[in-house]
TrEMBL record:
GO cellular component: glycine cleavage complex; mitochondrion
Name of the featured protein: Glycine cleavage system H protein
UniProt cross-references to NCBIfam families, sorted A to Z: gcvH, PRK01202.1
UniProt record, GO biological process: glycine decarboxylation via glycine cleavage system; protein lipoylation
Domain of life: Eukaryota
Subunit comment: The glycine cleavage system is composed of four proteins: P, T, L and H.
Length: 137
């Protein structure tokens, strides 16, 4: 039990979460060096009921601000932009059949996984408090 608690605590501190002004989040695991990218709860509320998620392919090397796919809702379609440069190493296959998972838990449902080209790019992104100031204006 004690070791499990230590492992959970270590995992909690190994993940760095940042946000963009375009309403994407990135959760970077400093131990595995893999980032998960998704959209914020604010973004999913603005989009409405999500009906489809379109992905780029695993292996794609992308630049900061490049489109990584699109999210379609009953109201609109919106691009997913790369918060940093990197390479796609995984996509969330569950979203192909259940895109509404983003509506249910946007801050927990990742869209893709990436290996970053430069960790220092994370420093250019917003922390949670700065992001919340933007959406609460």
């Amino acid at each position: 039990m004690y070791m499990r608690s230590i492992l959970k605590l270590r995992q909690a501190f190994s993940v760095l979460t940042k946000y963009t002004k375009d309403h994407e989040w990135i959760k970077y695991d400093t131990q595995t060096k893999i980032a998960k990218i998704g959209i914020t709860d604010y973004a999913q509320k603005e989009l409405g009921d999500i009906v489809h998620v379109d992905f780029q392919k695993v292996g794609l090397v992308f630049k900061t601000h490049q489109s990584l796919g699109a999210i379609e809702s009953v109201k609109v379609a919106a691009d997913i932009y790369a918060p940093v440069a990197g390479e796609i190493v995984g996509i969330n296959e569950d979203l192909k059949d259940s895109p509404n998972l983003i509506n249910e838990k946007a801050e927990e449902t990742w869209i893709l996984q990436a290996k970053l080209q430069n960790e220092s790019e994370l420093d250019t992104l917003l922390d949670k408090q700065s992001y919340e100031k933007i959406i609460n204006k």
